[in-house]
Amino acid sequence: MILVTGGAGFIGSNFVLEWLAQSEEPVLNLDKLTYAGNLQNLAALEGDSRHVFVQGDIGDGKLVSSLLAQHKPRAIVHFAAESHVDRSIHGPGEFIQTNIVGTFQLLEAARAYWDALPETEKADFRFLHVSTDEVYGSLEESDPAFKETNRYEPNSPYSASKAASDHLVRAYHHTYGLPVLTTNCSNNYGPFHFPEKLIPLVIHNALAGKPLPIYGDGQQIRDWLYVKDHCSGIRRVLEGGRLGETYNIGGWNEKANLDVVKTLCATLDELQPRQDGKSYAEQITFVKDRPGHDRRYAIDATKLEKELGWKPSETFETGIRKTVQWYLDNQKWTQDVVSGNYRDWVQRQYAA
Ligand code: NAD
Ligand code: DAU
Q1: Pick from 81, 171, 295, 339: most CB atoms within 10 A?
Q2: Which pLDDT band, with edges at 50, 70 and 90, does 345 fall under?
Q3: Is the pLDDT of residue 351 over 70?
Q4: Ligand 2 pocket mutation pick from 197, 248, 323 by most atoms within 8 angstroms of CB
Q5: Domains of the chain by range and CATH?
Q6: Does the active-site annotation cover 134?
Q7: Which ligand is nearest to the Cα of residue 85, counting in written order?
Q8: Is the pLDDT of residue 19 over 70?
Q9: pLDDT 10s digits, 298-343
């Protein structure tokens, strides 16, 4: 069994679904179900005994220790975090609590559990920490892409909290020998992406006839990776990564925000044209910039490709098309999130 934290969120739920599609090894899924956690993402696993869901906080050391003792996982894959930059600007407290203190509590419980394992199991245990390219800060137009050796220069409360958690994970390896791995990935997109983030927000607003908000001049660059490719990268690192190492994950897909939004509009124009025959691009609206907005991220994933033979399977063009089609086919999923119905579903689920 493996323990996945944050497995009801965007990437975590994709990871759990992919894992159980490819393996019989069960997953213990620990998620607090904050606003970003959505059990509807995992509806396909209802009645599947390989998926054990526990609602709880990674910062609850007692709970985590008892789960480890009871289920004896051979690995922890740690996704749980507060993940939205704009929320971290409005209220950094939760980011410090979950991303830093929560990761510390999880590491403490993992260390005690790992320490007590028999020698053979000790050698095989893994703690894989899922992190972000944002810890490296912002690039100028002519800078090379981020390598694992780049200096940490986080600029938002979110990225600073992720940077702190990366440092804690590193320290637990160097000080205590905990067998850790860290991955730093670029921007993900795909199914089950919470519609507060750029791509799902734009698809939702376009279909709802609302403005498509572009921060500042829209020339900020992000490096986009289809979520299932992120998941396959994590699985590769878990299988073959060298202990204590960090691996960048990215798809070499740098795009300016305005171009991403225009691509989404063009894809929607083709797949579900507006009734008035005009383009969704007419809804593009420039709004106030994000404070401290990082200008450019770009990931150099050479280490993962060379050492572990990983390659993404989607290009930006194929991944975006799949994604737009998924949101068109699953409009109820987005409606339930936007209306808050997904919370009622959680209550119904737990009422029994
Ligand atoms: P998300 O916000 O969609 O999901 C986070 C999940 O963690 C939710 O299900 C939430 O309920 C859970 N959670 C939050 N606090 C918790 C706590 N204290 N205890 C237990 N569970 C808790 O996030 P995401 O986009 O899926 O990101 C997952 C991870 O990947 C994060 O660590 C993030 O930093 C990292 N990451 C994200 C991206 C991206 O583009 N989204 C890119 C690189 C790295
Ligand atoms: O780089 C990896 C990171 O990508 C992850 O670590 C974060 O968890 C994840 O949320 C994401 O952060 P970003 O800030 O890059 O993602 P977001 O979707 O919020 O924004 C993408 C870009 O689009 C960014 O430059 C801000 C801009 N934007 C965003 C929104 C929500 C807009 O122009 N308008 C918007 O309405």
Answers
A1: 81
A2: low
A3: no
A4: 197
A5: 2-190+224-254+295-315+341-349 (3.40.50.720)
A6: yes
A7: 2
A8: yes
A9: 999 999 999 999 999 999 999 999 999 999 999 999 999 999 888 7
| Cα–Cα distance for residue pair 127/110, rounded to 1 Å | 8
Cβ 98 under 6 angstroms from ligand 2: no
> Which ligand has the nearest atom to the CA of 337?
1
Q: Is the pLDDT of residue 208 over 90?
A: yes
Q: Is pLDDT of 111 > 80?
A: yes
What's the pLDDT score for residue 341? 84
**Residues 117-149: tens digit of each pLDDT:** 999 999 999 999 999 999 999 999 999 999 999
Q: What is the maximum span of the chain, computed from C-alpha positions, in angstroms?
A: 68
- For residue 118, report the distance from its CA to the centre of ligand 2, in Å: 43
Other CB atoms within 10 Å distance of the CB of residue 315: 13
User: Which ligand 1 atom minimizes the distance to the CA of 133?
Assistant: 43
Does the C-beta of 133 come closer than 6 Å to ligand 2? yes
C-alpha of residue 62 to centroid of ligand 2, in Å: 34
pLDDT above 90 as % of the chain: 96
Pocket lining: 31 vs ligand 1, CB cutoff 6 Å: yes
What pLDDT sits at residue 344? 73
283 lines ligand 1 (CB under 6 A): no
Distance between Cα 17 and ligand 2 center (Å) = 24
Q: Whose atoms come closest to the Cα of 79: which ligand?
A: 1
